[in-house]
Description:
Helices cover about 55% and strands about 15% of the residues. The longest helix has 15 residues, at about 140-155. The chain has nine helices and five strands. It is an alpha/beta fold. It binds adenosine-5'-diphosphate. Adenosine-5'-diphosphate binds near residues 31 and 92.
Amino acid sequence: MRLILLGPPGAGKGTQAKRLEDLHGLKQLATGDMLRAEIASGSKLGKRVEGVLASGELVSDDTMIEMIAHRISSPDCEKGFILDGFPRTVAQAEALDEMLTEHKRSLDSVILMEVNEDELLDRVAKRAIEDGGARTDSDEATAKHRMDVYKKQTAPIIPYYKNQETLQTVDGMRSIEDVAIQIDAILGL
Ligand code: ADP
């Protein structure tokens, strides 16, 4: 099964993706985590993207498309994958479609986690405290900026998937368990 979890920063994509990975063996591909791992390892790519992440802006489409193209063709993704944090622009969504077509594959589902923006900023602030400052992009101003970037650059992919009739919506303001139930129902799990 191949799916995308979509939603603004703090919507709970990572929590749900992890759960689907643990319970159903789908590989979680969290682009934010991949980028932070690159930064932590001090790789060339990590050095190049460090400032971008700290500013809350997006890493270039080319970089991200290459990263994902490489990952989804790996053996551990053969059974399926959950994209968490990709695509984040229409160009990335289009590139993903091309990659899948090339591999004669398609997406099973795109799940949009709908949330209330004010509560999200509270969640992000709370997560920042829990993380003990592990992320460089969770101060209030940068978190707000990431929300604006989401609205401007990522939200346009919602109509893109609506047109393809692959988009389904869950209420992301419910408890983790309730959101999980909604997702499982969509996926028939
Ligand atoms: P959140 O879910 O809180 O928005 P992520 O961990 O998914 O955060 O991403 C953190 C940062 O990594 C983003 O703000 C962005 O700079 C970068 N990033 C992650 N995925 C992508 C992507 N697909 N395209 C561009 N930049 C990305």
